[in-house]
Structures are given as structure tokens and as C-alpha cells.
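User: Predict Gfo/Idh/MocA family oxidoreductase's structure from this.
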Amino acid sequence: MKDIHIGIIGGGLMGREMASAFARWCALTDVTVRPVLKAVADLNPATLEWFDRIPACTLKTTDYKELLADPELDVVYVAVPHDLHEKIYLDVLEAGKDLFAEKPFGIDLASARRILDAVRKSGRFVRCSSEMPFFPGAQRVVELVREGGFGRILEVTCGFHHSSDLDPNKPANWKRISATCGEGGVLNDLGMHACHVPLRLGWKPGSAFAQLQKGWPRRPDGKSGTVACDTWDNAVIHAWAEEKGDAFPLRLEMKRMAPGATNTWFIEVLGTDGGVRFSTAEPKTLHVFERGKEQWWKRTDLGFATPFKTVTGGIFEPGFPDVIQQMWAAYLMERAGELGGRFGCATPEEAVASHEIFAAALEAHQRGVVASIPTQTAGHP
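Assistant:
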């Protein structure tokens, strides 16, 4: 087992989640590499205190450049507000480190393209975080689509919903302000979740219409006052994609105000001969449709059938910490050249392709038209 030394820039919610995935690495049974968290950087000293519980994490600093100067670090994971993506990602590459970047890979399309250019020039191994496709149900959807048994594709829907923004008393944070989240708002926040699997299956749309919706115009600022919130909270993109020369509707949904939803990722693929749907609302359950004399859906409980094998019994139900760990296994094993045909993390090209979709969605909504989506970005390797 080869140790890979990891540094984290941004020790908040996702930084802690990644660190806990490393701590459970012994659960994986078919990997040849092991992440070891050696350093973390965060502007808030109180945030850094949480990492005292990890003995291997010997460097805790408020200056991320001190982290990047550590010659022992192999990979740096970055989870910071979107307006900081480009500067920090480029600094990571300049320091000669491999990068695991958070979505959306830059605050807007122009930024994402500059990051991609820097990645290509650097020669470093870079991927973008997107964990939901590592649920067993999502993996089965990809497998069934690739087997080609659904006939001509009629329509595809993929999305990510949560409901926490329904509460007008929820304090604002940087994701509710365009200057730090980006003009795309929820597109930047949740868009990669909706785009990753369709893009991996080759379904990049050529045109799109979008409906964007804002939520509460002001929220508490946590300091006894309120602050303006100007980002889009809900977005539905109606697009056209192609499969084997046949066009079909592709709908992408990203919502921070979806009553009843708690981080629900879902996908549905319908064809002339069959279909499949999966939602993390039922994390071990897959629904498959087969055309016949009678029209019916079959329900199957998949259990713990993750891409990378673990000590967890097959009868158990997967959850968010499990797919975070699976995503990291995919990143590190692909970095080592040992992915072995398993599903890989989102590539820089796919991240830029998602931004191209978001840019078209913003134009379509603003002008009330169907907007063309750029096609110059190459597909994933």
C-alpha cells in the first residue's frame, strides 16, 4: 500500500468530510494507495482545531501558501468560495502538486477555461469533485445505458434538489451572493451534480432553454442585520442532446428550494425498449422499465455494490460518506494508473463543458430564447 500525502485548503464542511473518508480507508479492500492527511489550511484558526484529532496532520496554517511549500505533499484538495477557485487552483499547479478541485471549477466559463489551459500546460493530474455518481444505483444506470438495451433514447432527466433555502431565517453565506458564488448561483453550486453523468455518457446538449428563479431577496447576516441575496436559487434547463444521431430532450434540474428534498440526486433515462431511474431518496433501490405487452417497472434493491469493494456487507445501505470515499478511491487509483475501467471522477474538460451549459442557460433565461451551447471543449479523456 503506497501512501499519498494530502493537503486540504478549506477545512470547513467538505474538508472535514474528506478527512473522515481518509480515516476510514481501511474499509476498502481492493485499492493499492492510501491517502494520509498531512496538512490543512484555513483562514479561521477555530476551524483548524478540529484537525487536531488527526495525528498525521502536522501542519495547520492560516496561509495556504505555507501548505503549498511543503515538499512532502502529493495532492491538494481545495474547497473554497468560487471566486477564489482560479487563483488557488493555479497556485496549486504552480507549486507542482496534483489537484482535486471542487465544483464548479471557477466562478464562470472564462475562469474555468483559464484553469483548464493551466492544467494542460502543467501536466498535473487534476479532477473535479462529484460524488453522487458513485452510488451503486447511479453506477447501474451508467452500465445499463452503455449496454444499449433501451432502444432509441426518448428523454433523460438528471438533477439535484435540496430544501434548506426555503427557510427565510437561514443566515446568508457566500453561496447566496453573486460576487462570491458567481452569476450562475445554483448552477455553479449544484450544476456539476446534474451534468456529470450525462456528460460522461456523451450527452452534451447543443442548445438549451432555461428557467431560473430567485428565492428570498434578503437573509439574516448573522450579525443582527440582513444582507441582500442576489443569486439564482432554482434552475431548470431544457436542452436537446443526441444519442446515435437521434435527438432527445435532456432536462437538468438544480434546486435549493425544493420542498421535502434533502440533497436528493436523481436520474431517469427513458427509451423505446426500456428505461431506468434512480434517486438517492431511495439509496439502495433501482427501478428498471422493460417494454412488453404490459407496461411495468421493476424494483430492485442493490445493496452495497460500490465500484471499489469494502468490508461492508452487501445487504447494507450506502450513504454520503461512502460515496465520498469511493470518489477519492477513484481519484487516487486513476492517478496511479489503476482505475481499471471503473467510473472516474469528473475531468477538467467535463467541468468546463458544464460551465458552457450554464453560460447558455444564463443567456437563454435573460433573453427568453433557446441559446446555443459552445462545443469547442474536448470531451473527457
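The chain has ten helices and 17 strands.
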